[in-house]
Structure formats: structure tokens, C-alpha cells
Specification:
The chain is an alpha/beta fold. Helices cover about 55% and strands about 5% of the residues. It folds into three domains: about 130 residues, no CATH class; about 45 residues; about 300 residues, no CATH class. The chain is elongated and about 90 Å long.
Amino acid sequence: MVRRRLGFGGTLAATLFACASLTPSLLPRTWLYQAVLAALTGILGYAAGAALGALVRAAVPYRPPERTRQIAWRVLIGGCVALAGTALWYSAGWQRDVRALMGMDTRITWFPPLILAVAIALFTVLLVISRLVRLGGRKLIAWLGRFVPVPAGRAIGVMLIAGLVALFADDAVSSAFAAKLNDVSSVTNEGTHPGVRKPASSLVSGGPGSLVTWESLGREGRRFTATAPSRARLAAFSGRPAADPIRVYVGLGSAASPEAQAALAVRELERTGGFRRPVLAVLGTTGNGWVDPHVADALEYMYNGDSAMVAVQYSYLPSWLSFLADRERAAAAGRTLFEAVRARWARLPPGDRPRLLLSGESLGAYQAERAFRDLDDLVAEADGAMFVGPPNAGPVWRSVTAGREPGSPIWRPVYEQGRTVRFAARPGDLGRPGAPWPGPRVVYLQNASDPVVWWSPELIYRRPDWLADGRGPGVSQEMTWFPVVTFWQVVTDLTAGLSVPPGYGHRYGPNIADGWAAVAAPPGWSTSDTDRLRALITSS
């Protein structure tokens, strides 16, 4: 049973899936990633082909003669070898083309024989495991047949095996992996990044007089509060005396619940005078509490330090795992923080209120966006927002892109003539369309090649609009949607989102300066100021 030869339908489908995985996707990949991707998609293809073959055999009693089957197998093997060889031959060129689109070095290390060898070896391991599971299931069904009718035994056996596999995958693999990663991440959270020191400013959390202890901030919170630009650096950029920035952060160890964290954050803003600054930004964080330093620094340089920002940590886990397992926790934390801050902000006289802004990158964008029902709710509650590399699970993002004007691509949609919200892959996109753009303004920075934006389970069975609406900057014209395959390609791309130049993948860099300038530029801010801020971010 385990060592039986390969099935005809499974072999054909496995080859087609594996060869499809060699085609280009959003980002360039290494030869080893390609080998693993080919094995994973190949085993999925084999499962689909074997299942389809079994259905055909059950529905059609005819069996071709042995001689015909032998000829069919020879043709299949020859065709599979030719197809695999052709795909491997072109794969290196496809990867170079993707790198060229992104201005990267096209000299790459690519080993087609090793790709094939590693893919076959991993495919074999996965196939043996699946056949062992099937063998166990058949033995269980045969044993049950001694006590119950055969149809009932088959139904019970299939349900038991499926339940055991699901239980093992959930408890022994997924839960154990998540628990182990959570343990490792919580230990990491206790550490401090090299070079990060307890701040001397009383205007940041963890500093002198802070209501939040330095130890409770967590690894990313300590980096966020300790790395605020100094007055000297801010003054060097602006050419005039600067203020000390206010950065408030509440870690998981600082309070016992999201409500307590939000209340502590508000008290810390009151202590530091955050509600008396011209601008107050509520920032979303990624799973482990990270805040993009470019998002924070750019706003502070823009306001010459006369700004305040606040963020909370809701998880120890990496962003990608938090997105899969902790999305509701992220949403609840973001909503609780914003509502608490806004409630205190609303108690101020209208003329004394700071501009209330929102921002976040990746899962932090999702966290910030989930504080609102829709776009109208967002602009009614806040004075502006900038979301960077947002996952497409956000409710505002989804409703706006679904309602985009005909002819505008999903990677740069136009919604209601750009009256409130605009999308940008390049700085010039913020000027499109040329219609008036009053406030509050909402900006989405999203690269056409960012897998964080475009990954979705729907890729398994549906061609995405970002491949149907025309290709955005950096997306290969050779990229083609394949059921199941494209899903795994983009999953692989998620791990390489930061390995490309700014403006591609999940790298936004200097474009953040343009985003803030569009949303919340202070009086007297000019285009040349934005250019200088872009240069500063690029060099940092």
C-alpha cells in the first residue's frame, strides 16, 4: 500500500502543479525556496489528481488494455520530463526578469538540478506520510467491518481518521508550534535591542516620572520610546529650535487588560502633555508590538518635535502569526485605545484639540482600521489617517476597493473621485485624480507587489483582480494565476517582503513622507520640505 506505484492522474497533476510553481510571482525567490514550493504544490496536485482519478474509475467501469496503459504511461513520463525540464530552464530567466523590474542585481545563484532533487525528495516524504495515513484508515475500516455493516464502517472510519488528522494538525502541530513560538517570543520580549538605553526624557514612556515602567514596555516598546529623535537632530532638519517629542507606549506587562492599557495610555498622555500638542497620532502595532520607525520619525520631523503619539502592545507573536491567530485581539486593542484617547480628546474645547491622526503598517494598519465601521465613521472620528502596506482583510479597505470607479485598478483604485481616500504606490499617485481633496484625508500606501496586501485564502480558487486589472509597478507580465499554486507562491512571497528595494514588496521607506505630507502637513510645509524628509528617511 505504501510502496505502490504512482497513480496516473496524481502524477500528471503533481507535475502540472510543480511546474506552475516555477512561474514568477510577486517577488523574486531563492532556488531553495523554489524547491520547497515545488514539493508542496506538487503534493497538493497529486492529491487532487488522485482523487479525480478515483472518481473517474468509480464512475466509468471500462479499463483500457495493459498495452494501452503502458503506452499512456510512457507518453506521460516523457511529457512530464519535457515539461519539467522546460519549466526549470525558463525559471531562472523568470526570476531575473522579476529582479530587473525592481532594479535588483540580476546575477543570481540558481541550481535547476538541485531544485529538482530537493523537490522530489520532499515530495516523496510527504507522499509516504499521506499513504501511511491512508493505510491506517483502511485497516481501521476493515476492523470496524467486523462489527457494523460495511457502508457504516467506511463512514465511521473516514470520520475517525479525518478527526484524528485534524486533531493532530491542530493540537500536536499548530497549537504546539504556536505555543512554542509564543514562549520564545515572550522571552524575546523581555530583552532589549542592542544600543537601546533607558531614555532621559520625561516625555516618553519608561523615562523619568513615567507611569509605565521601562521593564514593562517590552522589547519593541523600549525601542520605540528610546529612539525618538533628539531636539538637536530635529533642529538640524528644520533650522529652528525644536521640541522634545512625546511618545507614549503601554506594553503587555504594563496593565492586565486592553481596557486597563488604554486607560493607562490616556493618563500617560495627560502626564506628558500629549493633548496640548498640535498633533496626536494613535499608532497601530504589529503582533510583537513593533512600530515602523519611519512612520513615527517622519511625523516628528514634520512637526519639529511638537507632536505626540501613542501605541499599545497586544501580543508577543510575530506579525504573520498574530494575523492568523490574533486578529480579533488586535482589532479589540486598537478599538479600545482609539475610543479611550478620543473620549479624552473630545472633552477639550474644540479650539484646543490637537489634530487626531491614525497610522499603522501591516497588521498595525489592520489594527488601526478596525476601530471603525466604515470610511464615513473613520473621517467622522479622526482628522486623518495613513495606512501602510495594509492587509486586505480590513473592512474599510475592502469596502473602498469594492466600490472603486470602473477602470481604476485595485492596486491604485479611485473612490468617489478621490474626495476622501487615495491610494499610492508612487508619490505622484497622491495627486490622482486632480479633483479637490478637502479634509479629513485618508491615504493608503500599497505597493503593487506587496504580498501582505494581496495575500488571501481566496487565491486558492479565484483569480485576483490585481492580476486581472492590469499589472502594477514591479509585477511581472509573466505572472499567471493558477488554482492553489498562486496561493502558495504568495505565501512564500510573504517571507521575502522586506528583501527588495523600497517601493516594492513590503518596503515603503521614503514614500511615508509623502503620505504624511498629504494627510497632515503643518502650516508652511512645502514640497521641498517633503523632498528633504524623503532624503532623510532614505539615508536612515
